[in-house]
Design brief:
Blueprint lengths: L1 E6 L3 E6 L2 E6 L5 H11 L7 E6 L2 E2 L5 E2 H5 L1 E6 L3 E6 L23 E2 L5 E2 L4
């Protein structure tokens, strides 16, 4: 399991091997972006990510690197952040092919088809 430490809403850090990596995003989901970076570093897509803030788990249950890498977030002025599954051409190698609402973030509510709105931090 890889621990992903959130700092604020746009920065996260994780360790692969002996190296600490920092991801800073200006828009979108830092967890999804970090998962795609992990895949680039050769992390097994089946490895779970333990997302934490201040030493406390914030996303339960833990999901795999490939699962998070298959998602992106689009900001909607009226509905807030909307999770969207990446298309097969957008997904990086190793990203899970999720296609059901049950494959989307815990606590998510469907919004017009495959995109979902996240209901948790």
């Amino acid at each position: 399991m890889i621990r992903l430490d959130l700092t604020g809403s746009t920065v996260a850090s994780f360790t692969v091997g002996d190296a600490r990596h920092v991801v800073d995003v200006r828009q979108g989901c830092v967890t999804c972006t970090a998962a795609r970076e992990m895949l680039k570093l050769g992390v097994d897509p089946a490895e779970e990510i333990d997302v934490q803030r201040d030493g406390k788990r914030v996303l339960i249950p833990c999901k795999s690197v490939g699962w998070w890498a298959a998602l992106t977030v689009v900001e909607d002025a009226e509905r807030g952040p909307i999770f969207r599954l990446l298309t097969s051409t957008e997904r990086p190698h190793g990203a899970k092919s999720a296609s059901r609402v049950s494959d989307c973030p815990e606590g998510a509510t469907p919004v017009s088809g495959s995109p979902v709105r996240e209901g948790i931090a």
